[in-house]
Each structure stands twice: as structure tokens, then as C-alpha cells.
């Protein structure tokens, strides 16, 4: 075979070492030049030159998992036909440093906490950009096509040293699912995690409303608390904050400090916006005493919020 395979890996820390999932696919420049193709994976410690281990697979396979200790390893993957082998595609797995995927480790730059940046999707895909560094000879982006499943169908794309952005698309991408992208720089077959991005093809409204768990009443105010609302990757969009809606039962609302919100039946609610997804408490002031009110708390994402259908009801006490 001519050319090389395009190879990638996922490293999972385990007790006394690491599990390495190896994946390969035929790059555009690869030519089988024969009918009976198989693959051979070989791995050996870099430091002590111990005897290599190897395993072979038929052409129906494109991944395997091996277990290694915490030393540095050299892994090569070759295609084979009935004549000879292709050139090896090599991966260097560095010595384990105790870092998680949340931490940036680069042998040239040192170690620092790696922040996750939100990115936006379009109908054509999810746009990813990154800062290039002159030390790398290529960049790799990986992601899961099905992030909530195991296995998650890990995918990757490789880019040249002068590329700093890409539109990532997949037939598996659907609205309302959060996809996490890891950007690696590679030099001399050794990849370092540089940046993390997370985004949706399209955000959808939250799956459910916050559950109000505590109500504190005075004659002219009500404080609502919703302590356990999730804003993580289980949501169908990035939770940007909350809206609190309130109105007297008998009439439209016009409370000081609120905005007018008109429902489809033309009734008017007072709307308050909380622009912090970590806030889980809000006080509505300027209420009338001895009055019945209806209220609802909604979370909103970049995809909006669900329609208002259910209210909770309170009675303010007599002054």
C-alpha cells in the first residue's frame, strides 16, 4: 500500500495506567494497491527499548483499545496487503502527568488551566477557530458524534500548520445536543491539547422549567428559590438566565421595574430578567397586599424558552 493511514487516539486514565483507544482511517492519499488489506498495530516503551507488542486486524476493523502503563509509548499503525506494508503512521503517547482533559499540557509552554469557549452553530455546521503556534506541524480537532452514548463515535479531522479555523459538520449533528471539541497541536507525532470549544448546531429551549422549591411571602413582595436547576450539557442549549413572570389574577400587570409581556390571549404579564444562569433566587417587589397573583419561572437559552402554560398561585397577606 502507498501513503499512510490517518490515525488518532483517545486516552483514558485507569488504575495503574491508561487505556488507549486507537482509531484509523484511509487518508485521501492512501492507496491499497491490492485486494487483501489488513492492519497491524505495534506499541513499545520509548524510554527503555523493551520488546514491542503487536496485534493484527482484518480490513473490517478501524479501531482497537490497548492498555499501557504511565511511561511514554510509541505506537505505529500500518496497512498490509499480500505484497508488503504501508509506511507506518506513528503516535507518541507522552508519560502520564496526572492532568485531566481540562488541563492544557504542552512541553514547550508549561501547564495551565484550560478554559472552555462557547461556539455557535449554523445550518452548515459548527465553526471552530483556534490560535496557531509556530511550533506545531499540524492541528487535530476531535469530537463525539453521539456525546451522550458509549461508545460516543469519536471523530477527528487533521489540518495543516497554517490553518486556524474550520467548519465542522457531520450527518449525526442534530439541534439541541451539545458537542465538545478538543483542539490539539502536533509536532513530531506528539499531540498536545491546546483549546476546548463547546457548542450546538442550533440551540433549543430548555427541556423543562425550574422547579420553585421555596416561596417566602410578605404583604408586598415574594421571594422565589429554585436551588437545583441544571445548566450543564444535559440541556438543549446554553442556559443564559431566567425570566420571572407575575400578574394579579383579576387584571393585567404593571409593576414598577418590569417589562410588559403579552400572552397569545392578549393578557399582560410583568416580566423580570435574570441574566445569570447561576442565580437561583429572585424577589418580586411592589406587590399589593391581600391580593392573588399568578407566577411562573422560565429558564431561557439561545433558542428561547418554552411557552407559558402553567402558573403557580400565591396570596399576599393583609398588611
Structure overview:
0% of the residues lie in helices and 48% in strands. It contains no helices and 25 strands. A five-stranded mixed β-sheet has the order 10-17-16-13-14, with no helix packed on it. Strand 1 and strand 2 (17-26) form a beta hairpin. The termini are far apart. This is Oncostatin-M-specific receptor subunit beta. GO terms for molecular function: ciliary neurotrophic factor receptor binding; cytokine binding; oncostatin-M receptor activity. It comes from Eudyptula minor (Little blue penguin).
Offer a quick outline of the entry.
The chain contains no helices and 25 strands. It is mostly beta strands and 319 residues long.
